From TrEMBL, chain A:
Required for the biogenesis of c-type cytochromes. Possible subunit of a heme lyase. One of its GO terms (cellular component) is plasma membrane. InterPro entries: CcmF_C, Cyt_c_assembly, Cyt_c_biogenesis, Cyt_c_biogenesis_CcmF. Residues 314-638 form the Cytochrome c-type biogenesis protein CcmF C-terminal domain. It comes from Devosia limi DSM 17137. Pfam families: CcmF_C, Cytochrom_C_asm. The lineage of its organism: Bacteria, Pseudomonadati, Pseudomonadota, Alphaproteobacteria, Hyphomicrobiales. This is Cytochrome C biogenesis protein CcmF.
Automatic annotation (TrEMBL), chain B:
The gene is ccmE. One of its GO terms (biological process) is protein-heme linkage. Belongs to the CcmE/CycJ family. This is Cytochrome c-type biogenesis protein CcmE. GO terms for cellular component: plasma membrane. Heme binds at residues 132, 136. It holds the Pfam family CcmE. Gene3D superfamilies: Nucleic acid-binding proteins (2.40.50.140). Its main location: membrane. It is a single-pass type II membrane protein.
Length: 657, 159
């Protein structure tokens, strides 16, 4: 019964969205009334999709195997958390989650957007409804999650064991919140193009949404990376897999958007470019979600889907993205640009940032799509792997990182680069000193390591330079410095923390790549081996039953170089329902570094173990958490809070940030 | 830093400023395009079935991806050293891999191995790609099997 209720709720949401689209585009000029109507519609859509989603969750939780989706993706023995996350561990359910987040953002705009000009609000909500109608329609007509199975089987087929992990409960919702959040920027861009009105207030509105989505996306990607790292058992944290690229491209474009919207908000410049970026970012998000799903790219994220469904998805993408760009081409020239600036200025630095980020996005896009294009045109099957991306992306990021610390120190309009350099002198000296010291002590195994270290330290220290400078640390009494530091605007703090996070991530990547050690060896219980000073003893091997699997556990004792022992347990699981094996690697964190241990399939009582020592690898994710934290911090800034932007420009008392 | 000439001079006209920015854009884009093209030429890896390997006379040492089925009864393990035969039904290639194979590596199932040929015609795999699902056969392998007439959807599962 609740299944049908859910199904009906989704159909109703689809109907309301469709009506909103027709009414909205026809009457957006009609003032408050239409905006109010659309706002109520947006909230209603959210409630209805939430009901639909709750119905699915309920069916999974009580193991209602009359629901086909539950049969294919659940099992009564599965722990509760995986029953819930199993709802979106498949194509149909993940579509409903996607739509739920879409309508949640729509409802947020509707509730917080009362102060928006009514025509802008109406157009934003209409465009948002258009997206809801398109994707709810797609879900209902091609991938109905509420299909029943008659007769209902007694037991389900279980979820892919790789997905039976806490990661599935966290990674997709975060990632989707990021992807889908950019739909708001997209809708604002479309609204600006249709109404032909775009000003600094527009940018002030869009920026918090961009920041919010970017924060979610940052966390989602970092979480996905860590999940792949510990669950897939390959010991790597990034593979330049098409799917990873698909999430990374909107992140790069979104980062660019974040910076260009800043220029637009403060200086009323880069308008057309910002609109363009807003469209591109969401288009890449759509590409990220659906190119991956269409079955064109093969990966862990491809839920078995039939080709017709992929075709519908691609047509839908072409329609949304193509339509947006058509509108852009027709209307962009009517937007007046303003805000002149010299090449060396804060604006100039942000343009440079955008240039490199956009180019990097392009390079990743080419590398991701080239095999598809070549396959379609020539019929040659190739793969573009990590070397391509390391080369192109690395070469584009290096200059960006080099100029990054200058950006926040330059003044708007026209800046003095020498003065900025003087303030960065100490950071540069410290970065060079540490790089030389570490290269001398650690030994340099790859030639690029010192350059990477230098860039990482430079960005990290350079980002803090502004904080130190503004607090007058060392020039006035410490207590006064502290007071100044605490009193700094949160946007300054968040800029510094986010950039510092970039430096930290770079350092983690460089350190792991340069100094990682690996050992593959035959090891049996009672035997001992050694890697990078860590002594591993294989204590015992045993079979242990789990909730819905049987585990073969290898118990190890690790003696760290500094003394002290810790136990590690590496597992191989065989899932009862599917008979599928998975590897659960053992990971032990020592400071910022990790020891990663994988147990191979035993053969006639001999065991193979693969051990990695990954120095400072946790910095990679810590940096991402810092970036996301900075995003949250900036959202708490009174001046930027979602829903509370001041409409008028504030020419006075605005610290140059 | 990046536009040193622009620092000290004052009174750039609007046109000059715009030109400077556009020139900068053009230079970076040109460099990036060159970079991408060079990387695409040098860093891509071709996918071959065992029959392709023989037919196209792939040079030893060249990085390729080899895809096909693991031939039944050919997987041998000695500690961490693995030997198995990759087949597309017409041609066999003996592959060697040192390390832990993916969980779902099984005889009779699809496999994609990255590596290069030895002068003797064998294949040294540096990486054997994991599959995520027991029904999953890499698309490239399906194509290769279809090409050799060995594709049996009922046994190999769906893509």
């Amino acid at each position: 019964m609740s299944i049908e209720l859910g199904h009906f709720a989704l159909i109703l949401a689809f109907a309301i969205a469709s009506v909103s689209v027709l009414g909205g585009y026809a009457f957006w000029r009609s003032g408050e009334r239409i905006a109010l109507f659309l706002a109520q519609g947006a909230v209603l859509q959210f409630v209805l999709v939430a009901v639909a989603f709750a119905a699915l969750i309920q069916a999974f939780v009580v193991s209602d195997f009359s629901l086909a989706l539950a049969v294919n993706n659940s099992h009564s023995l599965k722990p509760l958390i995986f029953k819930i996350s199993g709802v979106w561990g498949n194509h149909e359910g993940s579509m409903v989650l996607w739509i739920l987040i879409l309508v949640a953002f729509g409802a947020m705009v509707a509730s917080f957007g009362r102060r928006l000009p009514s025509d802008l609000l109406a157009l934003v909500l209409t465009t948002q409804s258009l997206l809801v109608a398109a994707f709810a329609g797609f879900t209902l007509f091609t991938s109905n999650p509420f299909a029943r199975m008659v007769p209902a089987p007694l037991e389900g087929n279980d979820l892919n064991p790789v997905l039976q992990d806490i990661g599935l409960a966290i990674h997709p919702p975060l990632l989707y919140a990021g992807y889908v959040g950019f739909s708001i920027c997209f809708s604002f861009a479309i609204a600006a193009l249709i109404s032909g009105r775009i000003d600094q207030a527009w940018a002030r509105w869009v920026r918090p949404w961009t920041m919010l989505s970017w924060t979610f996306l940052t966390l989602g990607i970092a979480m996905g990376s860590y999940w792949a790292y510990y669950e897939l058992g390959w010991g790597g944290w990034w593979f330049w897999d098409p799917v990873e690229n698909a999430s990374f491209m909107p992140w790069l474009a979104g980062t660019a958007l974040l910076h260009s919207a800043l220029v637009m908000e403060k200086r009323n410049a880069l308008k057309i470019w910002t609109i363009f970026l807003a469209i591109i970012t969401f288009s890449l998000s759509l590409l990220g979600t659906f190119l991956v799903r269409s079955g064109i790219l093969t990966s862990v994220h491809t839920f078995a889907s039939d080709p017709t469904r992929g075709l519908v998805i691609l047509s839908l993408l072409a329609l949304v993205i193509g339509g947006a760009f058509l509108l852009f081409a027709m209307r962009a020239s009517s937007l007046r640009s303003g805000g002149l600036f010299a090449p060396v200025s804060r604006e100039g630095a942000l343009v440079l940032n955008n240039l490199f980020l956009a180019t990097a996005t392009g390079a990743v896009l080419v590398g991701t799509l080239y095999p598809l294009v070549l396959d379609a045109l020539v019929g040659t099957t190739i793969s573009v792997g990590a070397p391509f991306f390391d080369l192109t992306f690395g070469a584009l990021m290096a200059p960006l990182l080099l100029v990054l610390p200058f950006g926040p120190l330059l003044a708007w309009k026209r800046a003095d680069v020498v003065a900025a350099a003087q303030r960065l002198l100490f950071a540069a000296a410290l970065a060079i000193f540490l790089t030389i010291l570490i290269s001398a002590l650690g030994g340099v195994s790859i030639s690029l390591a010192p350059i990477g270290l230098l860039l990482g330290f430079w960005v990290a220290f350079g980002s803090v330079a502004e904080l130190i400078d503004r607090s007058k640390l060392g020039r006035i009494p410490l207590a006064d410095s502290w007071r100044r530091l605490v009193g700094l605007p949160r946007t300054i703090w968040s800029t510094a923390i986010a950039h510092f996070g970039v430096g930290v991530t770079v350092l983690g990547i460089v350190a792991t790549t340069a100094w990682e050690t690996e050992l593959v060896t035959t090891l049996n219980p009672g035997e001992t081996t050694e890697l990078s000073g860590y002594v591993l003893t294989f204590d015992s091997f045993e079979q242990v039953p789990g909730a819905n699997f049987i585990a073969e556990q290898g118990h190890f004792t690790i003696t760290a170089p500094g003394g002290g022992t810790r136990p590690m347990v590496a597992e191989r699981r065989t899932y009862v329902a599917s008979g599928m094996p998975t590897t659960e690697a053992a990971i032990e964190t020592y400071g910022l570094s990790q020891l990663y241990l994988q147990l191979g399939e035993p053969l006639e009582n001999t065991h193979v173990v693969r051990v990695w020592h990954k120095p400072y690898i946790t910095l990679i994710w810590l940096g991402a958490i810092l970036m996301a934290g900075a995003g949250v911090l900036s959202l708490t800034d009174r001046r930027r809070r979602v829903g509370a932007p001041q409409r008028a420009a504030k020419p006075i008392a605005e610290p140059a940030e | 830093m990046t536009m040193p000439a622009a620092v000290r001079r004052k009174g750039w006209s609007r046109k000059q400023k715009r030109l400077a920015i556009i020139a900068g854009l053009a230079v970076v884009l040109a460099l990036a395009t060159t970079l991408v093209l060079v990387a695409l030429r040098d860093q891509i890896v071709f996918f071959y079935s065992p029959s392709d390997v023989v037919a196209r006379e792939v040079a030893p040492g060249q990085a390729i991806r080899l895809g096909g089925l693991v031939k039944d009864g050919t997987w041998q393990r000695d500690g961490q050293d693995n030997t198995f035969v990759v087949t597309d039904g017409r041609t066999d290639v003996v592959a060697r891999y040192t390390g832990i194979l993916p969980d779902l590596f099984r005889e009779g199932q699809g496999v994609v191995a990255e590596g290069s040929l030895t002068p003797e015609g064998g294949f040294i795999a540096s990486n054997v790609l994991a599959k995520h699902d027991e029904n999953y056969v890499p698309k490239e392998v399906v194509e290769a099997l279809k090409a050799s007439g060995e594709w049996r959807p009922e046994t190999a599962g769906s893509n």
